[in-house]
Design brief:
Layout (H helix, E strand, L loop, with lengths): L1 H16 L26 H20 L14 H8 L2 H20 L9 E5 L9 H5 L10 H10 L6 H12 L3 E9 L3 H10 L7 E5 L8 H14 L3 E7 L13 E4 L9
Parallel strand pairs: 1-2, 1-4, 2-3, 4-5
Helix pairs in contact: 4-7
Length: 268
């Protein structure tokens, strides 16, 4: 009986003392619980993706006018906004807005033929791009400085937004009266007109800037009042393009409004 038990145990003992000679492929994989290395480097790619998601969500909320009045972009979104406004995404979004406006102009609008049909364009970041200025000022991460911005305006170096220039020329070609309605002050009329002409914008009907008694008014009120004056003069406002909701909302609104993207600043 003892001999029989020894025969049963002998193969197990042989296996135990000869493990070094066996191939690991012939044995079951040992169960090893591996704990994470707390000193390992974080997954920066995942962190970047999370920031990108949050900043995309924030930009969407801004464009949908769902964010409360804000003065600067979120600190974590500086690189995101930089990549957006200097990359292809911003250009594609601008082109989309202008293309949709062009479809509306050419296929929906019927002009009265009396010279009273109007299309309104804002100027800053609607016709003229201020991205070069904001590149030097944190892409919206700095609180707006009117003095510094006026220095930029005085240079008259703002480039045209190409898709807006295309729409502008289409609107003119169809017989619209073009009104340029800007929040710039009356003292910037000369440099603004020269900048616009130098980059291709010609033949507007009227360039409206803030007069002395307009200062202190919100953009929404100021632009609503100017649109109301147009209507009192018998004009029909069929279209309006602007990068701020304050360019478009308020009273005496146009039949159709087209909001251009702008995640760099907010004007009430």
């Amino acid at each position: 009986m003892i001999f029989f038990k020894f025969l049963l145990l002998f193969p197990l003992l042989t296996l135990a003392f000869s493990h070094e000679a066996l191939s690991p492929h012939h044995l079951p994989r040992p169960l090893i619980i591996e704990y994470p290395d707390h000193h390992a480097e974080p997954n920066f790619k995942e962190l970047d993706e999370e920031v990108k998601l949050r900043c995309t969500s924030w930009r969407f909320a801004v464009e949908a006018n769902n964010v409360n009045p804000w003065k600067t972009i979120p600190e974590e979104c500086v690189e995101y906004v930089k990549d957006y406004v200097t990359g292809r995404g911003y250009s594609v979004d601008l082109e989309r807005v202008s293309n949709e406006a062009g479809i509306y102009v050419k296929s929906v609008v019927v002009l009265g033929g009396d010279g009273k049909d109007v299309w309104i364009f804002d100027v800053d970041d609607t016709l003229l791009s201020n991205v070069p200025y904001y590149a030097d000022h944190g892409y919206g991460s700095e609180v707006f400085d009117q003095v510094e911005f006026d220095k930029w305006v005085d240079k008259g170096m703002s480039p045209a937004i190409k898709s807006s220039l295309k729409l502008y020329e289409e609107v003119l070609g169809l017989g619209f009266k073009v009104f340029l309605l800007t929040g710039r002050s009356e003292g910037k009329r000369g440099v603004t007109a020269e900048n616009l002409k130098n980059v291709g914008f010609q033949d507007w009907h009227k360039l409206i800037l803030r007069a002395a008694d307009d200062h202190g008014k919100s953009a929404t009120i100021y632009k609503s009042e100017k649109r109301s004056e147009m209507e009192k003069e018998g004009y029909r406002i069929l279209g309006n393009s602007g990068d701020q909701w304050s360019d478009l909302l308020g009273s005496s609104m146009s039949i159709r409004s087209f909001k251009l993207p702008n995640p760099m600043y907010y004007i009430p």
